[in-house]
Write a structure and sequence with these properties.
127 residues; four-stranded antiparallel β-sheet; 11 strands; globular
Protein backbone atom coordinates (compact mmCIF):
# COMPACT_ATOMS: atom_id res chain seq x y z
CA UNK A 1 0.00 0.00 0.00
CA UNK A 2 1.20 3.50 -0.76
CA UNK A 3 0.62 6.58 1.36
CA UNK A 4 -0.03 9.84 -0.47
CA UNK A 5 0.09 13.34 0.97
CA UNK A 6 -0.98 16.38 -1.06
CA UNK A 7 0.09 19.94 -0.44
CA UNK A 8 0.06 23.30 -2.17
CA UNK A 9 -3.61 24.15 -2.20
CA UNK A 10 -4.94 27.54 -1.21
CA UNK A 11 -6.90 30.61 -2.21
CA UNK A 12 -6.01 32.37 -5.45
CA UNK A 13 -7.63 34.95 -7.70
CA UNK A 14 -8.88 34.03 -11.14
CA UNK A 15 -6.01 34.03 -13.60
CA UNK A 16 -3.53 33.05 -10.93
CA UNK A 17 -1.44 29.92 -10.51
CA UNK A 18 -0.87 27.19 -7.95
CA UNK A 19 1.38 24.17 -7.85
CA UNK A 20 0.16 21.07 -6.09
CA UNK A 21 2.52 18.38 -4.85
CA UNK A 22 1.85 14.81 -3.85
CA UNK A 23 4.48 12.92 -1.89
CA UNK A 24 4.33 9.14 -1.93
CA UNK A 25 5.75 6.57 0.46
CA UNK A 26 5.33 2.91 1.26
CA UNK A 27 5.92 1.18 -2.06
CA UNK A 28 7.85 1.59 -5.28
CA UNK A 29 6.60 4.86 -6.69
CA UNK A 30 8.27 4.73 -10.08
CA UNK A 31 6.35 1.75 -11.47
CA UNK A 32 2.85 3.17 -11.05
CA UNK A 33 0.99 5.81 -13.02
CA UNK A 34 -0.32 8.69 -10.97
CA UNK A 35 -3.41 10.79 -11.33
CA UNK A 36 -4.96 13.98 -10.06
CA UNK A 37 -8.70 14.14 -9.47
CA UNK A 38 -10.94 16.84 -8.04
CA UNK A 39 -14.32 17.11 -6.39
CA UNK A 40 -16.35 20.29 -6.13
CA UNK A 41 -19.25 20.64 -3.69
CA UNK A 42 -22.29 18.80 -4.99
CA UNK A 43 -20.34 17.20 -7.82
CA UNK A 44 -18.85 13.80 -8.33
CA UNK A 45 -15.11 13.34 -8.26
CA UNK A 46 -13.61 13.82 -11.72
CA UNK A 47 -10.35 13.09 -13.47
CA UNK A 48 -8.04 16.06 -14.00
CA UNK A 49 -4.71 14.68 -15.23
CA UNK A 50 -2.60 11.56 -15.18
CA UNK A 51 0.98 10.58 -15.91
CA UNK A 52 2.54 7.25 -16.79
CA UNK A 53 5.08 5.67 -14.47
CA UNK A 54 7.93 6.68 -16.77
CA UNK A 55 6.65 10.23 -17.11
CA UNK A 56 6.56 10.23 -20.91
CA UNK A 57 2.80 9.91 -21.36
CA UNK A 58 0.20 12.25 -19.93
CA UNK A 59 -3.54 12.59 -20.15
CA UNK A 60 -5.73 15.61 -19.33
CA UNK A 61 -9.38 16.40 -18.97
CA UNK A 62 -10.56 18.72 -21.72
CA UNK A 63 -11.45 21.37 -19.16
CA UNK A 64 -7.82 21.80 -18.08
CA UNK A 65 -5.88 21.18 -21.29
CA UNK A 66 -3.48 24.02 -22.01
CA UNK A 67 -3.71 25.34 -18.44
CA UNK A 68 -2.59 22.46 -16.20
CA UNK A 69 0.59 20.42 -16.42
CA UNK A 70 1.26 17.18 -14.60
CA UNK A 71 4.81 16.02 -13.95
CA UNK A 72 6.67 13.65 -11.68
CA UNK A 73 10.07 13.24 -10.09
CA UNK A 74 10.62 9.55 -9.42
CA UNK A 75 13.80 10.27 -7.48
CA UNK A 76 11.73 12.30 -5.02
CA UNK A 77 8.64 10.06 -5.11
CA UNK A 78 6.56 13.11 -5.94
CA UNK A 79 3.99 14.06 -8.54
CA UNK A 80 3.08 17.67 -9.30
CA UNK A 81 0.20 19.55 -10.83
CA UNK A 82 1.03 23.02 -12.12
CA UNK A 83 -2.19 24.97 -12.53
CA UNK A 84 -2.14 28.21 -14.51
CA UNK A 85 -4.86 30.63 -15.55
CA UNK A 86 -7.11 29.32 -12.82
CA UNK A 87 -10.85 29.84 -13.06
CA UNK A 88 -13.56 29.85 -10.38
CA UNK A 89 -14.82 26.55 -11.87
CA UNK A 90 -11.50 24.98 -10.82
CA UNK A 91 -12.51 25.38 -7.17
CA UNK A 92 -12.51 21.90 -5.61
CA UNK A 93 -10.71 19.51 -3.34
CA UNK A 94 -7.85 18.02 -5.33
CA UNK A 95 -6.74 14.44 -4.74
CA UNK A 96 -3.77 12.52 -6.01
CA UNK A 97 -4.07 8.80 -6.60
CA UNK A 98 -1.90 5.85 -7.53
CA UNK A 99 -2.78 3.37 -10.27
CA UNK A 100 -3.69 -0.13 -9.11
CA UNK A 101 -1.60 -1.75 -11.83
CA UNK A 102 2.16 -1.46 -12.16
CA UNK A 103 3.75 -0.69 -15.54
CA UNK A 104 0.45 0.17 -17.22
CA UNK A 105 1.15 1.33 -20.76
CA UNK A 106 -1.51 3.98 -20.81
CA UNK A 107 -2.88 6.61 -18.47
CA UNK A 108 -6.44 5.83 -17.48
CA UNK A 109 -9.02 8.36 -16.35
CA UNK A 110 -11.28 5.89 -14.53
CA UNK A 111 -11.01 6.50 -10.79
CA UNK A 112 -11.84 2.83 -10.16
CA UNK A 113 -8.44 1.97 -11.62
CA UNK A 114 -6.71 3.95 -8.87
CA UNK A 115 -6.27 2.13 -5.59
CA UNK A 116 -4.60 4.56 -3.20
CA UNK A 117 -5.71 8.12 -2.50
CA UNK A 118 -4.44 11.10 -0.58
CA UNK A 119 -6.50 13.12 1.85
CA UNK A 120 -6.99 16.00 -0.58
CA UNK A 121 -6.05 19.65 -0.67
CA UNK A 122 -8.49 22.52 -1.12
CA UNK A 123 -8.13 24.88 -4.07
CA UNK A 124 -10.33 27.95 -4.09
CA UNK A 125 -10.36 30.38 -6.99
CA UNK A 126 -12.06 33.71 -6.44
CA UNK A 127 -13.52 35.77 -9.25
Amino acid sequence: QVQLVESGGGLVQAGGSLRLSCAASGRTFSVFAMGWFRQAPGNEREFVAGIKSTGDVTNYADSVKGRFTISRDNAKNTVYLQMNNLKPDDTAVYYCASDRRAFRRTVVDDQNEYGSWGQGTQVTVSS
